[in-house]
């Protein structure tokens, strides 16, 4: 049954009847009074500026994004500047923001926009979705906010608002539930003021209908919201079915010269920390030691085990066991270039560092032999 048919078949007291013009009107009235209107990407709006903000804001809070966004836009004010950038410089500006595939996709997409669209951000949603790293919701948000095109969106904040307001049970990642949410999102998206509406529904999820302890008393959806009515705020959206998270262990080889510089290795362009620089990593302790011996030409290495370092990925938890070797000589017979580089924290190179490298380098001062 379609959403419209379902609404017709239900009593008028069912909150699902609220989907549509009433939902949008209530939300826009709230936005006019309480919405955020002074964020950096809300000024001098262009598709490029909105695109960069939407990618940075994926799974990242506004307060965290703002300084990264401002530095990024200062260095890359338009798509041609980004397309001409060196990979390392882009990853360097992204260091600390996480989810580095976003940065790599931004760079790939910028180059495609220049090569295939003459440097103009496409205004067709299918063409936008064809760019690396841009899905249906992100494409819709970019075009709605920057071009006033009517497209529904369904990011995490919007899913939370809709599942609670309309009492949608079931994990939103399931195909059937996601399809229902897209239908609701489309039904609620107005033809007028679509840019404000799009910002408003994201704001509502980010500032009022938050994950824990939502501020229901000030929510414009207070009356029709099924979750508020039935006390289901804590269980909606339905969480993803829990599975045991795999745990992995690896060994990080840290070669440190007398001048304090450490040897870093560039990760392959795809996979974990793709394209970033970090310490050489091995599955077995003996493999890490063998690599150190080969690179230094020294046997019976006086290595030092540092405290384990834990890092969580989307699908597993990783424990790194760092092995530190203080070099007795200033130079090693190691070919630098595309794969290796010496990194001096006192005069840091502008390269993209994986988070474990950032944290381990920062902590090395506590473990000087």
From TrEMBL:
Note on how the cofactor is bound: Binds 1 [4Fe-4S] cluster.
SMART domains: ENDO3c (SM00478)
Cofactor dependency: [4Fe-4S] cluster
Domain HhH-GPD, chain residue ranges per copy: 56-207
Enzyme class, broadest EC rank: hydrolase
Keyword Transferase: no
EC number: 3.2.2.31
Reaction it catalyzes: Hydrolyzes free adenine bases from 7,8-dihydro-8-oxoguanine:adenine mismatched double-stranded DNA, leaving an apurinic site
Keywords: 4Fe-4S, DNA damage, DNA repair, Glycosidase, Hydrolase, Iron, Iron-sulfur, Metal-binding
A Pfam family assignment: NUDIX_4
InterPro entries noted in UniProt: A/G_AdeGlyc_MutY (IPR005760), DNA_glycosylase (IPR011257), Endouclease-III_FeS-bd_BS (IPR004035), HhH-GPD_domain (IPR003265), HhH_base_excis_C (IPR023170), HhH_motif (IPR000445), MIG/MutY (IPR044298), MutY_C (IPR029119)
Record bears the keyword DNA repair: yes
Function: Adenine glycosylase active on G-A mispairs. MutY also corrects error-prone DNA synthesis past GO lesions which are due to the oxidatively damaged form of guanine: 7,8-dihydro-8-oxoguanine (8-oxo-dGTP).
Family: Belongs to the Nth/MutY family.
Identification of the protein by name: Adenine DNA glycosylase
Organism: Steroidobacter gossypii
Gene name linked to the record: mutY
